[in-house]
Please model this.
Amino acid sequence: MDNNTGMSPFEAAFHASAERHERFWIFGVLVMLVLLTIGTMFYVVHDYGLVTGTHSYATDPQAPAREAAFQDGKVVRTGPNAYAVYVVGRAWHWSPDVIHVPEGAEITFYVTSADVLHGFEIQGTPVNLTAVPGVVGTVRYTFRHAGLFRILCNEYCGMFHHAMVARIIVDPAGTP
Amino acid sequence: MSMDITADTIPSALPRSDSDRAATSMRRLMLAFLVMGFSALLVGATIGPLQALNYGGIDAYPALRPLLQSYYQGLTIHGVMNGYVFTFFVTCGLLVYLPARELGVAPNLAMWRACFAVMALGTLCVFYAMADNSSSVLWTFYPPLKGSPFFYIGITLLALGSTMPLPILLKMRATWRRHRPGEITPLVTYMSLTTMLMWGLAGVGVVAELVLQLDPWSLGLIGTVDPIVNRTLFWLTGHPIVYFWLMPAYVSWYGLLSRQVGGKLISDPMARITFALLMIFSLPVGTHHQFSDPGFSSIWRGILVVLTMSVATPSLVTAFTIGLSLEYAGRLRGGRGWFGWFSALPWGDPSVAAQVLAAVTFILGGATGVVNGSWQLNAIVHNTTFIPGHFHVTVGSVTAMTFMAISFWMVPHLTGRQLVSRRLALFSVWTWFVGMTIFAIGMTWAGLYGVPRRAWVSALPHETYHALYGMASVPLALVALGGVLLWVASYTFFAVFFGTILFGRRTAPPPIPFAQSFGGPASSTIDSPPNPAQSASPLIRALDHIWLLTGVTALATVAAYIPILWPFLHHVTRAPGWILW
Model:
């Protein structure tokens, strides 16, 4: 064999050992990736997940932003402990720019844009939803602790993109 | 076409002789691709550290006003010059030159020149559009932000030009196979070809976006575009582009590095399997960049997670094969024990040092990539500084450092001039390694505090900056420090690169360090002895059917994108353009 392939004894030995370890490595890699995949999917399947959804589409990119719910920027009570919040991104502010929600309630954010793409990020949470003109996206989140959170724009939207910041004030449970 | 009638095949010995005209033209053209690419990097890398300082709270832009109007203009130039122009030029040079020399077959020079010319024209257009601040739309140019027609037409030309090596490669491979029936494609050619086939397929997305929507829109021929359809088409190309950055670096790691360290490639089949997997899996997964978008089903998000995890397989196989090839060389050089082989590598060779260090940074790059692909973790890091932190230890280290490494042997090879200073070259790659690692650690860490990417945070009032990002002050300081180190590294590199071309001492041009694999032939040129040892396995023979591979990839891509695009195409939004900078 050594003569056929022109390998030195060291090379041949290294080659044989390499092939053995290679199979072992590939097996290990596949097991690791399968476990990672199962791990990452587990959270979604078990409802710990944060999934962005779509509420509606419109041909006119500004149509959703003109709807009454978005115009008023209200926090609407939709159940015993559930609220809907309507937010529009515009260059370069969020409307409304101060939102009060209660601690521990399930909040559904309805988010759209009146001009270009914006990124609806609530700092310190996994909430992250692209605001698209003409599309109303949704994301559900429950704030476990009272305090101040900030909505930052994380999709580039022009000259004052960095200044597009709004506040969410999570009131302690039990306050009216 | 006239070129390849006169020089269809060239004996492998001939290109080494300066008298051979075709070989001289090839070398000149290759040098032109390198110079153009690295000149783009010079522009991009000059601006980059300003952005790192921005995150550290230092706003340099008011002082640069006539030259740069804003952080966002600078960021657009940085992304386009580094991500598109630099990588496209170097890659479109390398992936023609290396196979041509491996096969001993002359490329179609007219076509290769046209590739250069189309991309150069594109660069000119796009640079003009960025320089006058008419198109500060960043390298992702998401509509309905609207840049000037020069920007979109320039990108269109760059994209089209970058696929032109594909027919050149196919022609060279066909010539080689006519002379050597029954043999499988030599490794470097195989890797180059799968890369270009992957890119040719991937380019369909962005070319459709540009030609059907953004080009006519910017010219005023159509009034509105659909933001989410275009975003999806962009990422159809935008994810595979990551592999168009990575695969040329792998070509060097698999095809050359083992020889450069004084050993052999331990597995030729594994290199082929890696490239085939990269080709198949890089295409259908682009929408994982849109986990935070509304509009497509959760089932597809789950499927995308599985596909995205699969694309980590070839990179983990690469870690093994390249690692073991380095170990083999290290042991041949007298390295003993667990880590002795690593320190026994020829660290004095800047080309080796750059590639091994690049591979080390890829541990962080790959790990953060798996985080990005993990849907729920992605929700935490999406569009934060974590993302640029990740890709600066992929394209910013693996690709950039490997291309720098290639230039260290290739410029002497092409020009017959010695590196002006081996020490400075070593200094530049070590500083790049340290700077990029510090930068990436800072960026990924800051991202976990929700610091958004692409934000001119240093222009905020001081109190606001501290209220929003004060908790991330340590990582953000690291970002700034990394940026300053990268400035030092890049200028040292450019001094070596341009210094060598202009002032290097004359020397005999070194040969291309094509690696031999275990049991593989010493040479694969068209006139080398037949290779009877090529009793390749059925799998490797099957992988050599590149059209089969292309078909499978195309099918997987169509299957993945129909369900994603379907709802978007049924709910079209007609968005007018906005100029907001």
User: Anything to note?
Assistant: Chain B has one domain: 23-518+538-570. The radius of gyration of chain B is 23 Å. Confidence is low (pLDDT under 50) at residues 1-19 of chain B.
